[in-house]
Design goal:
By secondary structure, the protein is an alpha/beta fold. The protein is built from 7 helices and 5 strands. It has a 5-stranded parallel sheet, covered by helices on one side. β2, α4 and β3 form a beta-alpha-beta unit.
């Protein structure tokens, strides 16, 4: 791995096996990904730093998404309705390399109400090659109609003992 990378980047898990903790959650997500038709929209909620974004990236790989077909949107800084409409306008494009295209909205609680409204149709009836992953620390900031369109997974932070055990492995 790279010498100049930060530790969190250098040791970021890239598989379910590498992801520490949340064993029941991992099993549940893996079973969901084995389905012939996995859900179109996943929502990963949990406290800051628990691995929501990492899990989202692992889910994308599990769906067969090539890195070129993965788009990550940090909605803490890019939450305009114009940006959301641009993403929705591109949904019909098929993947360049993989089986699926995945759009991940990180910090989704930052989405403005009109942006959430604009996304509803995309979440409800996306093309079969599109999947959404919504990551948030504050699901209460999202509309119920928005949340109902997603399979929700709740992550927990690692306990101190699991964190120490994991750090020793690293």
């Amino acid at each position: 791995r790279g010498e100049n990378m930060s530790l969190q980047t250098q040791y970021r898990p890239s598989t379910f096996k590498m992801l520490a903790g949340n064993e029941k959650l991992k099993k549940s997500v893996m079973k969901m990904l084995e389905r012939d038709q996995p859900p179109a929209s996943f929502m990963v909620i949990g406290p800051s730093g628990c691995g929501k974004t990492t899990l989202g990236r692992i889910i994308a790989r599990g769906l067969g998404c090539h890195p070129d077909d993965f788009k990550e949107v940090n909605t803490a800084s890019d939450r305009s309705i114009k940006g959301i409409r641009s993403i929705l306008d591109d949904l019909h494009y098929t993947p360049m390399h993989g089986k699926k295209r995945v759009i991940m909205f990180d910090e989704a609680h930052g989405l403005l109400a009109p942006s959430q409204e604009a996304l509803l149709k995309g979440l409800e009836e996306p093309p079969s090659h599109i999947h959404f992953i919504i990551c948030t620390t504050n699901p209460e900031a999202l509309k119920d109609t928005f949340k109902r369109r997603c399979h929700i997974y709740r992550m927990d932070s690692l306990t101190s003992s699991k964190m120490i055990k994991h750090m020793k492995v690293i």
